[in-house]
Write a sequence for this structure.
């Protein structure tokens, strides 16, 4: 293979690499605005269910009002880490 | 979720209820809880209404982001942790242990 062709391929790969690498990073950035709710905002009430092994149980945020602090931990999918 | 389980006693000692939330079904979440040894409720936001209401829905993944909210007894948000920083709950445990939250 002529040296020129090899140089051209190497240059193409280099440029291609530079073009493609920043794209996922830029994408991550655009997908990460802060959640709509800020510290100090009132957390919206909800009614959700969980399965305790025999029954579906309702849980609302308002049931803890005046009684307990609540940690609400949103996670992406069951059976994943974090 | 495992990290919250590890800190559950500390959190419960400060009158704090831990609730996981995802868009999985209640039954998947129960199986997940059993697998990783989590004893607090993992709530099912089937359809994602609550996830959207809290502004943590990611259209691309059709799922929630990894976000923790600490909500005080008055219903106001005291702390937020987002994405990778949400995996270590130390900040939330510390916030719960501040004297003003214990009353």
């Amino acid at each position: 293979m002529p040296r020129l062709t090899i140089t051209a391929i190497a240059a193409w790969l280099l440029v291609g690499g530079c073009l493609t690498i920043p794209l996922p990073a830029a994408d991550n950035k655009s997908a990460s605005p802060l959640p709509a709710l800020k510290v100090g905002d009132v957390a919206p009430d909800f009614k959700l269910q969980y399965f305790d092994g025999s029954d579906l149980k309702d849980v609302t945020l308002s049931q803890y009002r005046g009684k307990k602090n609540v940690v609400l931990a949103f996670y992406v999918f069951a059976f994943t880490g974090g | 979720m495992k990290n919250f389980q590890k800190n559950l006693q500390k959190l419960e000692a400060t009158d704090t209820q831990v609730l996981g939330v995802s868009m999985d079904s209640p039954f998947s979440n129960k199986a997940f809880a059993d697998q990783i040894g989590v004893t607090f409720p993992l709530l099912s936001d089937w359809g994602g209404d609550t996830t959207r209401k809290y502004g943590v829905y990611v259209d691309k993944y059709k799922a929630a982001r990894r976000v923790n909210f600490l909500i005080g007894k008055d219903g106001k948000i005291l702390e937020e942790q987002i994405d990778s920083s949400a995996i270590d709950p130390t900040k939330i445990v510390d916030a719960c242990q501040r004297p003003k939250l214990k009353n």
Remarks:
- Residues 21-31 of chain A have pLDDT under 50 and may be disordered.
- The first strand of chain A starts at residue 47 and ends at 51.
